[in-house]
Amino acid sequence: MALTFPSMAGSDGRTLGDEEVAAAERVIRSGMLSSVWGTEARALEREMAELYGSRHAIACSSGTAALHLAVVAAAPDPGDEIITTPLTDFGTVAPILAQNAVPVFADVDPVTGNLDPGAVEALIGPRTRAIMAVHLFGAPARTAELRALADEHGLTLIEDCAQAWLATSPGGHPVGTVGQVGCFSLQQWKHITCGDGGLVITDDDRLAHTMRLFADKGWDRAVGRHHVSFGLNYRMTELQAAVARAQLVKLPGVVEARRRTAARLLKALDGLDGVRLPDPEGHAWWLFPLVLPGGGAPELAERLAGAGIPARAGYLVEPLNRAPVWDGPVYGTSRFPLDGPPAPCPEAERLVAENLLVIDWNEHYTDEHVDAVAAGFGR
Ligand SMILES: *Cc1c(COP(=O)(O)O)cnc(C)c1O
């Protein structure tokens, strides 16, 4: 019988158990499902802030909402620019448009797929307000260099850590703590989940206040029913928060298990011809990415998938600078704030079309799963 790989789409590939059931029941029986008056979301924020050693954590409804709060904190004027990567989930980019700012795509490092700081620097101009770095697949982006650039030019550095729970930057800093704002997702396909949910961390009191207000309709509840600024309802529910709290306890074990099996695969594939293996330093292994500098990733992915290995080429259908969204209007019939399609990003485009292969990774993989993947590569 063929070996089944645990998947994040089912209970065999998740860590949802009695603790989460008890958490959900506790909330339902309390009668209070809203985090405005409940205790769970506030407790989750304290536990997240403690885990990351940050002054503030803010719970919200999704990773995209978390990134929207971060863009709000960066305070672009309409038409200002935010530099980001084309190799990411659209949740990184949507909040930029939602604030009427322009996403400017910088090209990526052909080895890691993470932002190339040199490419970012070349795009900084008078309208740049922020840099949004993504720690792709769980590998730490070069945030020390990006923070230096941000400081030099008076920009906000936002870290999208949706795929990089407990990943660490060189020097041992948890990713999410090098920039002014770090954003996390609790969506079904992340390291830990409550279905949908988001968290933001920051050490800045003023930014934390701004983001809290935006997530609650600009309603300063310490004052009364005053709407002091523009905002939406991005509140996390108590049900989400209670499940997320139980998941947060399990997070270190999830990342540790992924690191252990990833190390086994790295060892098995060491020296493989035509393949660049990922650098394990600080990696949180959301996926296990491989780069084929000579191309051929789609053919290899098809062969591996045919052998029952959860492998895919490219990660995206096209990098986000090539997405169809740029061909149409943004609001109504207006294309504001865009003027023309994004510039090419040749390295990102080559990775997606030819060079990048990703293997789904999971904390429930056993040595047998790893060895089956290695066998797919002839090891
Ligand atoms: C999943 C993801 C998001 C969006 O998070 P949601 O919770 O799905 O809104 C943003 N950025 C990256 C890199 C992601 O992987």
TrEMBL record:
Cofactor(s) annotated in UniProt: pyridoxal 5'-phosphate
Source species, domain of life: Bacteria
Residues the record lists as N6-(pyridoxal phosphate)lysine modifications: K190
InterPro entries: DegT/StrS_aminotransferase, PyrdxlP-dep_Trfase, PyrdxlP-dep_Trfase_major, PyrdxlP-dep_Trfase_small
Keywords tagged on the record: Aminotransferase, Pyridoxal phosphate, Transferase
Segments traversing the membrane: none
Gene Ontology MF: a single term: glutamine-scyllo-inositol transaminase activity
Pfam annotation, one family: DegT_DnrJ_EryC1
GO BP, one annotated term: polysaccharide biosynthetic process
List of catalytic residues: K190
EC numbers on record: 2.6.1.50
PANTHER family found in the cross-reference section: DTDP-4-AMINO-4,6-DIDEOXYGALACTOSE TRANSAMINASE, TRANSAMINASE
Family: Belongs to the DegT/DnrJ/EryC1 family.
Record protein name field: Glutamine--scyllo-inositol transaminase
